[in-house]
Structure formats: structure tokens, C-alpha cells
Known about the structure:
The complex is a heterodimer of chains A (370) and B (56). Helix content of chain A is 64%, strand content 5%. Chain A has 18 helices and 3 strands. In chain A, strands 2-3 form a two-stranded antiparallel sheet. Chain A is globular. Chain B has 56 residues and is α+β, with helices and mostly antiparallel strands. Chain B is 34% helix and 16% strand. Chain B has 2 helices and 2 strands; from the N terminus they run αβαβ. The longest helix of chain B has 11 residues, at 34-44. Mean pLDDT of chain B is 69; it is low at 1-23. At the A-B interface, strand 1, helix 1, strand 2, helix 2 and helix 5 of A face helix 1, strand 1, helix 2 and strand 2 of B.
Amino acid sequence: MRAFVFTDSALERHAGRFVWLSVDTDNEANAGFLEKYRMRVYPTLMVVDPAREQPALTWVGTATVRQIEDLLDDAGRAIRGKGRGPDALLIKGDRLIADADAEGAAAAYRQALSKEKPGWPQHDRAVESLLAALVLSNQDGECAALAIERIPEEIDRHYAAVANWGLGCALGLEGEARTAGIAALEPAVRAAVAASDLDWTADDRSGALQLLVSAREATGDDAGAKAAAVEWLEFLETEAARAPTPSARAVFDSHRVSAAIAAGDPERAIPALVQSERDFPDDYNPPARMAYVLLEAKRYDEALAASDRALKLAHGPRRINLLTTRSDILAARGDSAAAKATIEEAIRYAESLPTSQVSQARIASLRKRL
Amino acid sequence: MRILSLAVAAGLTCLATLPAAGSSAVLPFIEDDYDRALAEARARKLPMFVEAWAPW
């Protein structure tokens, strides 16, 4: 979003309406912020009432320029707290989700939708916020069912968002519910991807293409999954090629790595990572991704060298991931003692971080690897 | 982690983000300084817009 949405000149007219804060959640300087405002999905966008230090409005996930403008317009009403009927319930849901009460938020959003009248301007946001709250409260079945029930007839940005949330939830189910959810929602995501005129961010489209890979994998269709991964990778390569700046090009790197691996051709991501490491020599992400790709490509010595470069630059919770990748590289080389020692180092480092930056579950998962 | 993975799959996490250097932001973001942003918001009597993101 920072490379594409927040650089859009359409937002310039809003500059004086807010104080704008950008929070890198990996930065230890933001530990206090993350203690105060708990969140589990990034990006999370919030409008905070500074008098009460409470979020008045929360949006989970990416947003288009138009959605940002709508959110900014909603924010004033939310801060004044003067909404009535479904608007008041929407505000209540926004506050609850920012307080990490996703279950309560889901109930509020449901109530809002039950009280809406035809043409309620907040309908789309309420449905998408309810889907997000259901995901955050581990109600995948409810989420998939809601997506099937609420998906609109017209293929537009809202249709795409509902289909994406729904298919993501269906993939989290098991057995017949999973099969039925995929059968109902995969075609919807496919239809959204095929619509060329959607007001969609590259993130959304990339996420949809990734879901289509996962859906094919879930149905045991290996050839279909590989074909979908190639389609995903080609989309990302096309977008990266027309990016106006090195920063805008490099934002596609992480998904290019995932797509190349899913396509069975991890080395296809290497040229992009070489370019990014050259363009951003102080950023740990390009060598970190390179280490992962080279591990997948079984080029272990080069993977270790990339891991060394990344660890020299990394800070915060991402360093834990780098150490686990390094452990995997060492294990793949047959050096199990060094692999174990690296996990022990990761645990010590994780335990040194603020609790807002690393969960106990994360530390427990590291211990299981010993 | 499952929630985050699902969000990634659903396209709900931003594509990997780099530091602002080199981008042409049109909004005057304060970087990683909540206390400063809060003080400014209170002084100017403006709400605060927050983007919390992850650099991966």
C-alpha cells in the first residue's frame, strides 16, 4: 500500500484532516504501541481518537484509494460516536475489533447488517468487516457460509473481497465442508480474477491468484495447481516490470518467491532478488528471501551465504524467521548439531523480545523443533 | 500464525513493503513515533490515522 495507494495524488487533499502515523510492527521502538493496540493482521489501518487514545475505526487488510477515502469520511462520525441504528453497531464493531474482541465485533457487525435498510451506504464495509472478524475469531465455517450467502451478483471490488475472504475460510475447513466451500467459492474468485476492470489493488489480485493455487492443491489437482501458480507468477512479473520505481518493483518480491516455489521453479525468483539486494543494500528482506529460495533450489552453500547477509541486517521478530530458515539450510546440509544450535539461538532471541512482538505460541513452536 | 497465513492467502496483507525512502508519499506520515504523533494530534485537535504494517 505504501508504494501504490499512499502515493496516489487523490489522497493529497486529505493530508490536513489527520495526523498520519506509520508503524513498522517489526521495529522494537513500536513495542509500546503494539501493547496498546493489539492486531494480528497486517496491514491494519486505524483512525484513533487522540483524546481517548482509542481506535474509532479499524480496517483489517489492504484498501484501495477509494476505500481509504470512504474510511476517512467515516472516521469523523465514528469519533463523534453519533451513529444511530446500524451505523452505531458498525462503530461498536470497529471498536471491539481494535480491542482484540473479534467475537464481539462479529456479533456487532451481524446486528448492524440485521438492522440495515436497502441502500445502506455502509453495507459493503459491514459485510467485509464481519468476514474479517469471523476469521480473527476462528469461525471459518461461519465465514465461508456468510461469503456464499452475501456474495453480490455484480462482479465488482466488493464481490472480489467477499469471494477472497470466503475461499480463504473454506480452505481452513476440513472434510465435506471444505470441499463444498471450495466448490462454491473458487469459481467466484476465478470470475473476479478474470474481470479486468475491477478497482482492485495488486495485493488483492495477487492474493486471489494465490488462493486459486491453494484451492487446486486442496482438491488434489497438482497440474491445476502448477498452472495456477504459473499464472500467478506471470501476473507478478508483469506488474513488477511496469513498476515506476525500484521500491514499487520490490514490493512484489515476496509473492514472486511464493509463486515461483509453487510453480516448481524457485530459481525464477532469483534475478528479482539480486536486483533488490543491489537496489536496497541495507534491507534484510532481499537476502532473506534469497536464502529461502536457494534452500528450495537445494543450493545450500549459497543459501547459507545469503542467510549470513540477511542476519547482519535483520532486527526484531523477523530475525527469528531468518534463524529458522538458517536451521533448515543447515539440516538440509546434514549438520544437525548446527541446526539445533541455531534453533536454540532463535529461542533465546525470541525470549528477549517484547511480548507484543513474539507470541508464546511462536516460542513453543520453536521449542518443538529441538 | 494460521490467521496471518489465511490473511496472506486472502490477499489481506500488503505485498512486502520497503522503507519509505524512494517513494513519493503524498501524506505526511510520521514514522514509528507514536508519542510524537499523539502529541501533534492533540495539539492540532485532529484524529490520527495509523497504518500498521510489516516489512515482509
